[in-house]
Specification:
With 361 residues, the protein is an alpha+beta fold. The protein is built from 11 helices and 8 strands. Helices cover 48% and strands 15% of the residues. Helix 2 runs antiparallel to helix 4. It starts with 6 loop residues before the first helix and ends in a 9-residue tail after the last helix. Keywords: Cell inner membrane, Cell membrane, Ion channel, Ion transport, Membrane, Transmembrane, Transmembrane helix, Transport.
């Protein structure tokens, strides 16, 4: 017969409760921290040779990057602009130095730290990119403009409503000297995204103006007279030949469009246009081709006066228009040579300013 153990025996044979740890003391904590620092110091002392080697590798790659950045003359030989070459030098040096940093961290077995740093740098770069978006856009636009060379120093260009001579191209903006002598700075991002007209690339330029004549005039004779006058003027080219076209037919007038070509390297566009208008006006006066005055229709709300009674009218003989002025052959053409006033001011500005200029003189 099996005898079961009593309850007292079971209580005596149970496992005793675990001992409760004593509360940590200040001295114990200090001892633990001291032990950790000693362990870190011993580890650092063991890794000191690798740390020195890693520092040497980074420094060597930094110098190597600087040496390679100064050996980038091939960038200019392939046609890269000054700003793009400068950016390329910085990128080469940065990449070579980054390779040295990666090798150094690999020696220290700290590539995980490098990955964390790259992550933080990426987030920081995105934040900085949003904050300085306009500056980055203008810088990249400056690189594109200096690479494409759409204009040179002194070229007359028009961007939107602004017209002027190009003074310089910087990494952030383009400086123009307007036709009234003021300095105008336009961000490069605006220039790269806007329509631009360069008046200087093609030396030939067409000038035109409009003339109103009466419908009673002989249009063929009027057109031939305009062309003949332009052929006689100094500064108007014979090839391409000047033209006179019928532009519009109105209720009480016919609009002629007079066109002529000039070489703007030798002839000023504004001057020759002014002289052409003067000569055509004189030629029409001599040929008795009238240029009608504006006609107005008046409506009277009150009763009109009685017209049954005769009204005395005194006729006056009109003055001869040709008598007031000399004949066309006697007219002397004014100076129409190219105006170099703004060009001289641009040259003076370049001489007295040391601001960065990415354009070649």
């Amino acid at each position: 017969m099996i005898k079961l153990p009593s309850m007292a025996a079971l209580l005596l044979t149970t496992t005793p409760p675990p001992e409760v740890d004593e509360e940590p003391t200040v001295s114990g904590q200090l001892q633990s921290v001291t032990d950790k620092f000693q362990e870190l110091g011993a580890t650092a002392l063991d890794m000191l040779p690798l740390f020195v080697i890693a520092i040497i590798v980074v420094v060597l790659f930094w110098f190597l990057g600087g040496w390679l950045s100064r050996r980038t003359g091939w960038m200019k030989r392939v046609g890269m602009s000054e700003l793009a070459t400068l950016l390329g030098k910085r990128v080469v040096r940065l990449l070579v130095t980054a390779v040295g940093v990666i090798i150094g961290l690999e020696l220290l077995n700290a590539t995980a730290l490098f990955s964390a740093v790259l992550g933080v740098a990426g987030v920081f770069g995105i934040a900085v990119g949003f904050a300085f978006r306009n500056i980055v856009e203008n810088y990249l636009a400056g690189i594109l403009l200096s690479a494409r060379n759409p204009f040179r120093i002194g070229d007359v260009i028009q961007i939107g409503e602004f017209t002027g001579n190009v003074v310089r191209l910087t990494s952030r903006d383009t400086v123009l000297m307007t036709l009234d002598g003021n300095h105008l700075r336009i961000p490069n991002s605006v220039i790269i995204t806007s329509s631009m007209t360069n008046f200087t690339l093609n030396p030939l330029r067409r000038v035109d103006f409009y003339v109103d004549i009466t419908p009673d005039a002989d249009l063929a004779d009027a057109r031939q007279l305009c062309v003949s006058i332009l052929h006689q003027m100094k500064g108007i080219l014979d090839e391409p030949a000047p033209q006179c076209l019928i532009h519009e037919l109105g209720a009480s007038t016919v609009v002629l469009r007079v066109l002529g070509w000039v070489d703007q390297r030798q002839t000023d566009v504004l001057k020759i246009r002014s002289e052409a208008i003067r000569f055509v006006k004189q030629g029409f006066d001599e040929a008795a081709i009238e240029m009608p005055e504006p006609t107005y229709r008046l409506r009277f709300e009150t009763e009109l006066p009685d017209t049954s009674k005769p009204v005395a009218v005194t006729a006056t003989k009109p003055k001869s228009k040709t008598a007031e002025k000399g004949s066309l052959a006697e007219l002397t053409q004014s100076d129409v040579s190219a105006d170099r006033t703004i060009d001289k001011q641009v040259t003076e500005e370049l001489r007295n300013s040391d601001e960065q200029n990415l354009l070649k003189s």
